Amino acid sequence: MQSAPGKNNGRIPLLLPEDNPTHNKAKTMTKILTAIALAFTMTGSIFAADGKITEGSCCDKAKKATKDCAHPCCVAAAKDSKVCAKCNK
């Protein structure tokens, strides 16, 4: 006995991932979370590339006192969003 074309014989049709609304939401969320993680990673790498303050330097002492270093070389470097290479060897 053959069934008529277009009939599913009482079977529940399986949804393909493209047809499943839950799959599309999960795929969208994955893309959004990936973009956010990439943005945080890039932001962190920008700040890390500026240089580090050496322990015990004048900049470190000023930072611990919640002040900005007043040395002319450090002030000039801070204007360029950098750390003075002379004081932070």
Distance between the termini: 87 Å
How many domains, in number, for the residues?
A: 2
Query: Treating each run of at least 4 consecutive H or I residues as one helix, how many helices?
Result: 3
**Which shape, going by the Cα principal axes?**
rod-shaped
Determine the mean pLDDT.
77
Main traits of this protein?
rod-shaped; 2 domains; mainly alpha; 89 residues; 49% helix; 0% strand; single chain
Protein model, in words:
This protein has 89 residues and is mainly alpha-helical. It folds into two domains: 20-49; 51-89, no CATH class. The protein has helices spanning 21-49, 58-64, 72-79.
Give a brief description.
The protein is 49% helix and 0% strand.
Task: Outline the secondary-structure elements.
Blueprint: H1 21-49, H2 58-64, H3 72-79
